[in-house]
Every structure is written in structure tokens, then in C-alpha cells.
Amino acid sequence: xxxxxxxxxxxxxxxxxxxxxxxxxxxxxxxxxxxxxxxxxxxxxxxxxxxxxxxxxxxxxxxxxxxxxxxxxxxxxxxxxxxxxxxxxxxxxxxxxxxxxxxxxxxxxxxxxxxxxxxxxxxxxxxxxxxxxxxxxxxxxxxxxxxxxxxxxxxxxxxxxxxxxxxxxxxxxxxxxxxxxxxxxxxxxxxxxxxxxxxxxxxxxxxxxxxxxxxxxxxxxxxxxxxxxxxx
Amino acid sequence: xxxxxxxxxxxxxxxxxxxxxxxxxxxxxxxxxxxxxxxxxxxxxxxxxxxxxxxxxxxxxxxxxxxxxxxxxxxxxxxxxxxxxxxxxxxxxxxxxxxxxxxxxxxxxxxxxxxxxxxxxxxxxxxxxxxxxxxxxxxxxxxxxxxxxxxxxxxxxxxxxxxxxxxxxxxxxxxxxxxxxxxxxxxxxxxxxxxxxxxxxxxxxxxxxxxxxxxxxxxxxxxxxxxxxxxx
DNA sequence: GTCTATATGTTGATAGAC
DNA sequence: GTCTATCAACATATAGAC
Lengths: 232, 232
Known about the structure:
The structure is a homodimer.
Chain A lengths: L29 H16 L6 H8 L3 H8 L2 H16 L1 H8 L4 H18 L3 H11 L4 H8 L6 H19 L8 H17 L1 H8 L3 H22 L3
Helix pairs in contact in A: 1-2, 1-4, 2-3, 4-7, 4-8, 5-6, 6-10, 6-12, 7-10
Chain B binds a DNA duplex through helix 3.
């Protein structure tokens, strides 16, 4: 029942120099292949619905190897989630924390996020679903977003953006809005269409191509929509 | 393997007159209690993660009864999803289809949706997660939304709203926007905060109370934000 | 590191008494 | 309609050979 905590993972990846690509390394080493396979399967079925067997098949290895590298399904799930979480927002956080003008930030975020999500469209649904069923993974989500404590980053971003909003308001270039609402509005408009894609596509009768077109139009029009909302 | 299709469900609910509340009916009849319990459990764990046993416990009955009423876990999941899907959007669809002025529709939808979701905050994550893992349930989602064919309702709404937008644009009261973008923007702003609640709460350090306050502020400010975005 | 074989525990589902 | 008892099918995880 109680497992020894440190049947240490086979090796820490990273600093091995001068390794002439070994046979296993040809298409990425095994651990990486497993992680990728797990990512694919978890994405499609959700962690609870996924079978270790299928992940092994997808990775082209035996299922015992998954346990050799990741010890348990739950830890594998954590690893995958952690990596996935690192793809949703850190670029956005970087832009927000910078000292560029607010309007420029909005344009940059819309572009960055819509481009990224176009490449990994299932990411939002996966993250949302995972967080709904495993609230304890919020920690992973945050730490994937940054190295700092849970809400330290959030607070910093709110302060920075809040400051910029105040400036704009004082200069009569913007109507007041709470920075929390500002951020949630922006993220909602970027992320939700992907999270709710099946719904949206079905309701409006969009096939894959039409959806892509819809997103391209969005990428172009959304920044103005958002910025107009804040004109005084 | 092949199951006879029609070991018909025990009875069709609905038209039984003059039934002096039988003992079982006192706190809702059994089928209803099971459905409610399943709703709760599926919501929390997701369908794949849920256990029939736990649903039975939650309903206060034996797990064999679940199969008596719903035949299989999958059918129970369908029933729950169908009912849940009917809570997310039909009120919105009703407002959109009406002949009220566009601005009024926006205000009504924000209020209706935020009020409803405040009462059932896990609904969006559940629907999103379920649709991501079971694309085949889109049909249920749509038919729960209306009696009509898959995208018939969507098309009608787009036509109505599109017409109203055109009017407003011609009268120079609104800047042009595709009705698809209009609707997705509105729904994004209403629904996403609930779907991504754990993320948002963690990043901004909101407890339950602060989140509720956040939503109340949103209910008040969102309509103007949205309508301002479309000023010419 | 990677495989085969297997232990161990759940889980959805059914049979049959009441 | 509701319960008890039980089955058959998996799924996760480990042992141990190579």
C-alpha cells in the first residue's frame, strides 16, 4: 500500500554530452515517445477514460515500460498535464508582464493565442476537463505557468495591467474596468471558441475548413472589438 | 453481445393521473432520484471516472437498480447529458429568436446566463468535457436545445440576429460584425468564466465568495462592455 | 531498457429470491 | 420494484527473464 517514494526515475534527462544518437534516440528517446503518446490518448479520452495499454500501443512499446518510466498512471497523467498546462498561457503572461502599451498587448495576445490554439485545438477542453475533475492539479497548472507561488504571478499581472488601465483612464483614452474583468474578458474571447468548438461547429454548421476560416476572421477582428469596448 | 433493443424501460413517465403519492414518490420517484444522483456524480468525476456504485450510494438504492432503469452506464450517461445540455442554452435561444431589439437581447442574455450558471457552476465544464470525449453526443446536445434538426436552429438564429445587425449598421448605430462572431463573443464572455473557474480563481486568488462577487460585478458591467464594442 | 507472464483488485452487468 | 450474490472482463501494476 505504502510505496517507497524514491525508486528513483531511471535518469534525469538533460545534461548528457557527446551522445552519438543511439538507436532509441532516432525518433526521440523512449520516455519522450511515451509522454507524447500519453498526451495524444489523454487528450482524446480524458485521463479517466484512457487505458495504459492504448498509450503503450500508441508509443510502440510494451505497457510495462510505462510503469518503468512513470511508476503509475496517475503520475503519467500529472506529467502530461504539467507539460500541457505550460502551453496554454505562459506566452500570454510574458506579454502581459512586459512594458508594452496596453493596446499593443491586446493585439499581441489575440494573435499569439489564436495561432497557438489553432495548432493544438484540443488543449483548452483538456485543461478545463482535467481541472474540473482534479482540482488538486491547479498547483501544477500554476507552476507550469511560472516558477513562482500560486497566485504571485496573477497578482503581479493584475497590478501591471491595473496600472496601465488607470493611466489610460486618467488620460481619458479608456473607460474604467477592473483588471480582473479585463483579463477574463480577453481570455474568454480567445480560448472559449476552441473549448466549445464541437458545440459551435454543430450549431452553426461549420466543418473543419469553415471553422479555420472563422478563427482567421476572428484573429483579424477581435482586437478592435475588444479595444472598442473600452473606448470612453 | 447483441442486446435485444426493447426490453422496454419500465414505464414512460408523464401521463399517469390520480396517483396518490405512493411511498416511493415522497421524495421523487426512484428513476428521478437515480438521475439526480448520476448528475451529481458525473458532474464531479466525469462519466469515465464515475462509478455506478457511487451513483447508487448517492441515490440511496442498490446498484442493480441503476441497470434496471437505465440498462447500462452509457445510457445513463446519455440521459444525464441530455438533461444537462437542456440547461445551458435554450433560454438564450429563446431570447435570440424573439423580436426584441438587439441591445435588449444582449442585456437579457447576460443576466439569464450568469444567473443560471451561478446556480449550476459546473455545467459548462461538464458539457465541454463530455463533448470533447464523446463527439457523438453533439446530436443529443442539439436536440436537447430544440426539437429540430442539428443546425436548423443555429441557422435561424444567425439569420434573425444577422438581420438585426444589418438594420443597426444601416442606421449607423452599430459597426458591422458577422453574426457568428457576435454570438460566439457573447457566449464566450458569459460561459468561459465558469468553465475555467479553477484556473481563474487560482490565478487571481479568489475564494468562493470573491468569485461570486466577481460574477455579480460581471453581470452588471458586461452588457455595456459588449455593446460598447459595437458602437460605430 | 525492454519484454512476457501474471497477480490483484475493480467494475459493469446479470440471475434470481423476495 | 428492490435487494443479495456473483460473474466475467478488464486494467493497473509487479516479477522476473533477457
